[in-house]
Design brief:
single chain, mainly alpha, about 55% helix
């Protein structure tokens, strides 16, 4: 699966989850222990908002504080929809060999698009958990992400982008293994 397809399908799952979030859920806790549902959804919108600028060649310094603060305002569904549409449009137009200028260096656009897709998908699961719901990942997307992230396990843990990996049985289902790789444990079904 190419980066654009992975991003599209991850964004679809994140969008479906964000649609379920109402302002009454904003104070709910999330698996990201320092973030409420509101802070988590704002973070996801923040990451999504950067995509067009960075894929269009801007640097982190050039974008600056443009997206700092509350991006949800009083209509988080509308703001999400606008950012998602703009990001997907730019992702679709981005040539494969282009470099993206990130805070830690220049990376190929495919790598950046994969990273944002992974962030959106995992945080969509976190958001669903804050709503006391379960999100079942698109199996093909989950397999693709797992295959990309597993070799980078040590770097992921060191980056602080996700929690430290959790040990699970090797024969655990794919979603369980993917979530464990990024420091999440699925709730036990009773």
């Amino acid at each position: 699966m190419d980066a654009k397809e992975l991003f599209k399908r991850s964004l679809e799952q994140a969008t479906a989850t964000v649609r379920c979030v109402q302002s009454r859920h904003f104070a709910n806790p999330t698996p990201c222990t320092e973030w409420s549902c509101r802070v988590l959804v704002n973070h996801m919108l923040y990451e999504l908002s950067w995509v067009p600028d960075l894929l269009e060649g801007k640097t982190v310094v050039g974008v600056g504080s443009k997206y700092d603060g509350d991006l949800l305002t009083d209509d988080h569904h509308r703001n999400w929809h606008l950012a998602a549409h703009k990001a997907m449009d730019v992702v679709n137009k981005t040539p494969g060999g282009q470099l993206v200028h990130l805070s830690y260096g220049d990376v190929p656009s495919q790598q950046y698009i994969n990273e944002v897709g992974a962030d959106l998908l995992i945080h969509a699961w976190d958001t669903a958990q804050s709503l006391n719901c379960s999100l079942i990942f698109d199996h093909e997307v989950a397999q693709n992400l797992y295959d990309k992230l597993l070799p980078r396990r040590a770097k992921l843990a060191a980056s602080g982008a996700f929690a430290s990996p959790i040990s699970v049985a090797e024969d655990a289902r794919l979603q369980t293994r993917l979530l464990a790789l990024v420091g999440r444990r699925e709730p036990t079904v009773k």
